[in-house]
Amino acid sequence: MKNAILLIACTLLSLGCFAQRFQIDESVDVAKPAKLEKLTKAEFLRFKKEKLKDSVLYIDNVLHNAEGNYRIGDVLVNLKVQRGKMPPTRLLTMKKAMEPEPDEKRDPNSVRIETINGRQILLIETQDYGMKSYIFYTINEKNTILVHGIIQGLVADDEQLKSIIANFVRTARYKD
Predict the structure, then answer these.
(1) Would the N or C end of the chain have less CB density within 10 A of its end CB?
(2) End-to-end CA separation in angstroms for the chain
(3) 138 with 165: CB under 8 angstroms?
(4) DSSP secondary structure of 69-122
(5) What are the structural domains, with CATH classification, of the chain?
C-alpha cells in the first residue's frame, strides 16, 4: 500500500514538472510564462490606459495584431509570426536599416544583435514616459519562420522584460 501511494505521488509530481507550452501560432510554441493572459482589443486598450499611461510606443502595430496581445502581470506582450524563405543575413539587414544616422541624437546602442542560447535576436530598446520597451526579432535555423515580439512595461521592471524575451527565445520550438 505504501509503495502504491509513493508511486502515485511520484507520478503526479513528475507530471507537474513538464512545462506547459504556449502556442504563438501553428508553427511556433514556447514555454508558457506564469500569469500569461490573452487580451482582447478592448482589454488591451483598458490595460494601456491604466498601466501604460501616455506611452504610445508601437500602439498601431499592437492594435493591428490584436490576436497577438497578451499580458504577464503588468507587462504587455505582443507576438506575431511571419513565414517564408528569408536570407541568412535578414537580422543584420534589419539592424542596419534601423540604426540611427550619424547626425541623429538617438542612442546607437538601442539597436543591437544579441545571442541567447545560440540563437541570434535583433533587439531594439526604447524608453519614454517611464516605460521600457523591447522589440525583438528572431529567426529559426532554416530561415523560414520569423518571430516578432514587443515587450513593454515600467522601467523598474526592466529585468523582468529581459527575462520574458530570454524565455521566449530559449524555449521556442519551430514546426516547419
Answers:
(1) N
(2) 48
(3) no
(4) EEEETTEEEEEEEEES---TTHHHHHHHHHSPPTT--S-GGGEEEEEETTEEEE
(5) 20-174 (3.40.1000.10)
**Contact status, residue 91 vs residue 120, Cβ threshold 8 Å:** yes
Q: Are 19 and 32 in contact (CB under 8 A)?
A: yes
Task: Identify the burial level of 79 via C-beta atoms within 10 angstroms of its C-beta, where 0-12 means exposed, 13-18 middle and 19 or more buried.
Answer: buried
| Distances, alpha carbon 18 to alpha carbons 6, 31, 36, 109, in Å | 19, 10, 17, 38
Kindly state the average pLDDT of the residues 40-50. 81
Q: pTM for this one? A: 0.80
Compute the distance between CA of residue 164 and CA of residue 138 in angstroms, rounded to an integer.
14
Could you say which DSSP state residue 143 is in?
A: S
> Which region among 43-47, 107-111, 118-122 has the lowest average model confidence (pLDDT)?
107-111
Distances (CA, A) of 17 to 12, 13, 14, 21: 9, 7, 5, 12
